[in-house]
Design goal:
The protein is α+β, with helices and mostly antiparallel strands. It contains 14 helices and 6 strands. The chain has 2 domains: 154 residues, Beta Polymerase, domain 2 (2-Layer Sandwich); 169 residues, no CATH class. The strands form 2 sheets. Strands 5-2-1-6 form a 4-stranded mixed β-sheet. Strands 3-4 form a two-stranded antiparallel ribbon.
């Protein structure tokens, strides 16, 4: 059973009754659920995940108008709930904060994740807040929120504003061009094979980020990036072979179908032999065509300006020019990378 489901059952069996019986007067000022840090909040947990920071508890979010005395009583009541559940032991609550479960003010949670108490972000906030932090605001589940104190802010922060999204896509496309289509081969030519591996790493990271942006999903902490990639609708369902210029007809021609995820993983295994380098060049070309087709279908670029040109730098600037906000459009194209 996943950690999110364990926590929900624990709340339904114990937490709900505690709140109804002991705190009926503030029922409309609290929200209950499990969001934030931890693989279980994303649904990525497995048996290995239970070795640390795994707790069957839940979070009680309270509004700022609930005074410290009530907050203390809530904390005391929460601490008295059963310690053992479904084979797991609840973590001891720290008096100095930093807990993943228990009672939190919504403003404290948002300050921790976004640097603002209400989740109302400026242009510069949207650009500079780590994306993984935004992911931790909108992940997981909220099971009770009568007044919408968490629902409202989670809706507000659900995705990047369109112009911020475009700025990030433009910057990452330029990074893809510079790292994968240009610097990788130059590093090889200079016999700097270590640097070539770093170039491919930067290329894969930027490529994945564009995929998340096009799916309007925040990219999580790096160790879950590939896991999260599997849940995205694009380009999971596409046939990558359809984007190869000279499509081969059979598997004997060396045209075995490969998932987008595995293609990125294989890019990271680049070696300095000639066949590996040629494979990397071909895969980068394929991915470039895939992205150009998607950007064109979304109306973000005009790929007919120069047919068969797959160098992504020119398209990065086309995307940047689609930004409506003049201040954002005129910022350095790499400002949001």
């Amino acid at each position: 059973m996943k950690g999110l489901e364990i926590s929900k059952r624990y709340y339904n069996e114990f937490g709900k009754q505690m709140l109804q019986e002991q705190f009926p007067d503030i029922a409309d000022k609290i929200a209950v659920g499990l969001v934030g840090s931890g693989s279980e909040c994303f649904g990525y947990d497995d048996s290995i995940s239970t070795d640390h920071d795994f707790d069957p508890g839940f979070l009680i979010f309270i509004s700022d108008d609930i005074n410290d005395d009530i907050k203390f009583k809530l904390e005391r009541a929460y601490s008295k709930l059963p310690r053992e559940y479904n084979g797991f032991t609840r973590a001891t609550m720290s008096p100095v904060g930093g807990n993943r479960r228990g009672v939190k003010r919504v403003s404290d949670f948002l300050n921790e994740k976004t640097g603002t108490p209400d989740g109302k972000l400026s242009i510069y906030d949207w650009i500079n807040i780590p994306e993984e932090s935004l992911a931790e605001v909108v992940n997981g589940e909220i099971w009770k929120d009568d007044s919408g104190i968490m629902k409202k802010v989670r809706l507000r922060l659900a995705t990047f504003p369109e112009d911020i999204k475009l700025k990030k896509i433009a910057g990452e496309l330029l990074t893809m061009a510079q790292s994968g289509q240009y610097n990788f081969l130059r590093c090889i030519a200079h016999n700097e094979f270590g640097a070539s591996k770093l170039a491919i790493y930067e290329y894969v990271k930027a490529t994945m980020h564009v995929v998340f942006l096009l799916n309007e999903v925040y990219m999580p902490f790096y160790k879950w990036d590939f896991r999260a990639l599997r849940d995205l609708s694009w380009p999971k369902d596409l046939s990558l072979n359809n984007h190869i210029q000279n499509t081969c007809k059979t598997e004997t021609d060396g045209c075995v179908e490969e998932s987008f995820e595995n293609k990125l993983i294989n890019l990271l295994s680049v070696s300095d032999d000639k066949s590996s380098i040629e494979r990397i060049k071909g895969d980068i070309e394929l991915i470039s065509r895939l992205f150009i087709d998607r950007l064109a279908s979304d109306g973000l670029i005009d790929k007919t300006l120069e047919k068969d040109v797959t160098y992504l730098e020119k398209y990065a600037y086309q995307v940047n020019n689609k930004i409506k906000n003049i201040e954002i459009r005129n910022m350095n194209i790499l400002v949001a990378v």
